[in-house]
Predict the structure.
Amino acid sequence: MTTVSTPTDPTAQPQPSAGGVAPQPVAELRGVEKTYYKPDGSIMVEALKAIDVVINSGEYVAIMGASGSGKSTLMNILGCLDRPTAGQYLLDGVPAESLGDEELSRFRGRKIGFVFQAFNLIPQLTVAQNVEVPLFYQGVDADERRRRSLQKLAMVDLSDRTDHRPRELSGGQQQRVAIARALVTDPVVLMADEPTGNLDSATGNAILDMFGRLHAGGMTILMVTHDDSVAERCERIIRLRDGEVETDRVLRKHHA
Ligand code: ADP
Ligand code: MG
């Protein structure tokens, strides 16, 4: 694996290809800190310390680090589920701090697709209904919801399971439903927290193949993983240590 940057190299971001356009930032962290305080106001944990990271459109990024290094805290900020205690976070060019809580949550719904380790499907709903859920929250009408749901389910090769309940599916199939749900709003970035963590390695590899195809189609993907072999399928690995970026390595450039 070739490393083309050092941890402190400010050129760690992919460069514009010859004759191409400048990279478009999708997610930008500027001096982001997250400090947890005790009830008496004293510092309990500095979970993130002055993080500066830019994720450009079309990148496929793994976030790694030991337990407690700040991965979930970082993902929560990137995913607009939490806010920094200092610094700035811009998603698709918009500073999260400029949005109120409800605006931020709507913005998150439009811009980000989430995939979780435990799939997080709603057991009472059919596969197609599960995929429709994010559109329901956007007020999309029923016909259009169903049309878009079936389109994404075809993409993940589950057209023959649309009326099943999640429990009737294998783990890999359930994760494909979750991927369809994450994509149904046509988000600018797909964020996945240990998406293969609950799957056997063959099934996990099939899910990663799907991520690879989405990436090849231009999707920006951010993934938290503990697994080196998973991370090495990405094109960039950001490694956290004690709330700081320890290394930020570009393994290969993406094809614009
Ligand atoms: P990771 O996901 O890499 O295991 P986390 O982001 O969950 O790490 O945690 C980073 C640090 O912040 C840890 O020391 C953790 O104990 C602390 N932490 C996380 N969430 C909270 C919280 N809600 N309150 C206090 N401390 C927290
Ligand atoms: Mg975590």
Observations:
- Strands lie at 25-37, 43-56, 60-65, 86-91, 94-95, 112-115, 189-193, 220-224, 236-241, 244-250.
- Residues 71-72 surround magnesium ion (ligand 2) (CB under 6 Å).
